[in-house]
Amino acid sequence: MYLLIPIIIVLFFVLFLSYYHRKKQAVQKVGRMSYAWKCDLLNELAVPFGFSYQFVQDIFTFRDDAWQKEFGYGEFYDLNALSMHMILDCEPVYFNYHGKTWLIEFCKGQYGINTGAEAGIYHADSVVPPALRPQTVFTAAAEDEVLPVKLRLTGPDCPLFSISQKQWRVSGFVMGTFTAPEDLILEAAVTFPDPDMCTAFTRAMNGLGYKSSELLTYQNTVQFYFTRPKSAPLMAPDVFLEKYRLLQGDIFCELFLWLTNPFFTTVDRLLYLYYTHPCLFERILCIRMFQKHRRKRQ
Prior knowledge:
Structural class: alpha+beta
Largest sheet: 5 strands, antiparallel
Order of helices and strands: HHEEHEEEEEEEEHEEHHH
Helix content: 25-40%
Pfam families: DUF4474 (PF14751)
Strand content: 25-35%
Domain DUF4474: 42-281
Distance between the termini: 70 Å
InterPro entries: DUF4474
């Protein structure tokens, strides 16, 4: 019994020395790598999670071939956002065009330890009545259906990123940054293939409450600022849970920065975690989580 306490102390000391040695080795290993090598490695590691790393802006974006694409979009994703540590402002825009109901959803907010924004393009196989939209899973736009989208996300102090892509889900996520959704401004611009689709989208925006003066339309492009959602919430907000998730997200961001303190860029921080805490590395790269649901065709 008297030997138990010294044994525990020695054991903790050995574990501490082992962790310190492993940490030192990881710091040296990451430090010796060239920046191009680090970015290539991080992009390779991020592929199974459906993301790519853009070193110029230090952000993550959805890949066009991301596995999440096969799940499309359903309103239950937004309903379950809080349970998956996401506090978001979402603006789903439904409109009918060429015999199908289309959906372009804009989101901004806190995705775990990431501040981000995204715009997803989806459609059903036919026209879906408004009453059936909540239970319908919309298919992600195919390669020949995607639209050019430009997003510019601004925080309370400075711009966070600007991205222009033509794919099913245009997005940007700034890791290790905490921002409440109401403190973010998303400037979005969508270019449509013809005036009919542009008009259908504009009318849907008007139906949500956007005034014509809030929509800048030129040729077949619609540009607007997303500050607060104008669409009706899917359910009454749980204010207590939202505040708890915000506090939790803020704490997790600080822990991430503290744990990766030897480094300052996302690529260095994540590769350091990859070598020291691989399980934590994998958990952090699950930026936008999805759950499998049976698709209901319309």
